[in-house]
């Protein structure tokens, strides 16, 4: 009986171990360094001419932005004078690239050649008989007709009056923040948060956006810093729930992020065969 109970315990342990996820998430809370207006749904900056909205939530962080033109005239965002800056290192928004798209159609034509030949042989009455027969051969010809269009990257993006465009080029970071106060692979009872001030933060980043309206050129500097970092096991980062639309609920549950917000982002990582505790 003891041996049977031991076997059940071992099997149960193996089953639960095999079901445990090997994935972890590092969550980043972000605060602005420069003046901002933040509400429950938006994370944005605004001046007399434009409204620049951010939604950072993505794996690695999304520093792309929605640029809305509030004025009655066209605004030009000058990519060749705009930069993403991460920990004092600048990355160009204008890369002088050429984008090429191609389309093609394949056509097949058939050509049949028929010839009449004389065929001699014995008929049903065992008498020699000569008949006329036709033989044919078919050949297929294929051809590919296509074209390509090349578009040179522009140094400026035109934003018409009372409209917006999304400009996106970079992730914020793909490198984990490590600290002695953060366990690298915590369980649900070992989760802790490391907080930072703007001058001590391991990740400080900004968009320096240059734009022109009529004859006037302006530069907007939207700067942020990571204010808190937390490591989570997947079971504490995701939750299962029913989706709802109007008065109807989904039949099956689906996975959702618990901490989804415009001023947060995350990095997903897996447990490796290392022995690092932090």
Question: What does this 3D model show about the protein?
Answer:
With 278 residues, the chain is mostly beta strands. Helix content is 8%, strand content 55%. The chain folds into two domains: 20-94 and 156-270, no CATH class; 103-147, no CATH class. The strands form four sheets. Strands 1, 6, 7, 8, 11, 13, 14, 15 and 18 form a nine-stranded antiparallel sheet that branches. Strands 2-3-4-5-12 form a five-stranded antiparallel sheet, with no helix packed on it. A hairpin with a 2-residue loop joins strand 16 (238-245) and strand 17 (248-257). Mean pLDDT is 84; it is low at 7-18 and 115-120.
Listing every helix as H and every strand as E from the N terminus to the C terminus, the arrangement reads HEEEEEEEEEEEEEEEHEEE
Tell me the structural class.
Answer: mainly beta
- DSSP helix count? 2
What is the molecular shape?
Answer: globular
Radius of gyration: 33 Å
Give the tally of β-strands.
18
Protein name: Lipoprotein
Keywords: Signal
Organism: Bizionia saleffrena
Signal peptide: 1-20
Give a concise summary.
It contains two helices and 18 strands. By secondary structure, the chain is mostly beta strands.
